[in-house]
Amino acid sequence: MPIKLDCEILKKEKIIEGIYKFTLKAEPIAKTAKAGNFIEIQVSTTGEPFLRRPISIYSIDDDKIEIIFQVKGKGTEILSEKKVGDVINVLGPLGYGTFSVDNYKKVAIIGGGIGTYPLYELAKQLKGKADVTMYMGFRNKDLVTLEKEFEDVCNKVVITTDDGSYKQKGFALDVLKEDCKKEKPDIIFACGPLPMLKAVQAFVLEENIPCEISLEERMGCGIGACLGCAVKVISGKEPRYGHVCKEGPVFKATDVEI
After folding, report:
1. Are 119 and 38 spatial neighbours (Cβ–Cβ below 8 Å)?
2. Alpha carbons 30 and 54: distance in angstroms, whole number
3. Rounded-to-integer distance, Cα 26 and Cα 51, Å
4. Rounded to whole angstroms, how far apart are CA atoms 156 and 177?
5. Which of 44, 53, 98, 215 has its CA 20 to 30 A from that of 255?
6. What is the C-alpha separation between 205 and 186, in angstroms, rounded?
């Protein structure tokens, strides 16, 4: 069950312009969180914005969790101005659907842009248990982040940039497709912008490769009350609408229409 918790900011790091990593003291959340979970943060206690901001959990470590977020609006801008020692109210861990860390031998993980961050804890948990290749796609060299961190927990890291300014030019999915011609992985995990996820879904369904997709939707409450993150679920006898915050954010690629 998610809990509300006042969490102290133990460490703050500016990764690149507009992207920050916080380390939070959050033992009760860290003890139950899984790869794929997220939290909702109350960024202001004095006025707008009233709604909490959903942030994926980047890493879990004993009594601490780490989050990485990009400044996109007023809420995340306020959050970015917090300092070490400040206390923020957090609701979590949230999300029923999480990544399945199972007995896989060969795993492919693909992330696009800031969508790579929710995949780190997954890769960390798979370290030493499976042969993991991480495919990371960015628009350009200036946006490439966490290369070393993923190299430390994966067997291989492939980086692509849309403009060719760093490593391979093109899209990460194109490289994954070529690698799958040589040997298909037991499963593919994916998180990133919607066009990328749609392309990943189309590919895995055509090639019959098991896949889990983490969706990034706007979430007002994180508990299914506001109904703002509806998604069409196609598992079961009849298609229906579920909610990313409750049934996800991780879904089997065969079970959701994106």
Report:
1. no
2. 16
3. 21
4. 16
5. 53
6. 14
Q: Token pair of 187, please?
A: 């499963």
In a domain, 36, yes or no: yes
Is position 160 within any domain?
yes
| Residue 137 is assigned to a structural domain of this protein | yes
Q: How many domains does the chain have?
A: 2
Domain's final residue, options 196, 213, 230: 213
Query: Is 90 exceeded by the pLDDT of residue 258?
Result: no
| 3-state secondary structure (DSSP) of residue 16 | strand
Judged on CB neighbours under 10 Å (0-12, 13-18, 19+), 57 is buried
Same domain, 209 and 119: yes
Do 141 and 190 lie in one domain? The reply is yes
The encoded tokens of residue 240 equal 């229906």
Whether residue 208 is contained in a domain is answered as: yes
Using one digit for the tens of pLDDT, what is the confidence trace for 105-146?
999 999 999 999 999 999 999 999 999 999 999 999 999 999
Measured between alpha carbons, how far is 215 from 45 in angstroms, rounded to an integer? 28
Say what the pLDDT of residue 220 is.
60
Residue 170 one-letter amino acid: G
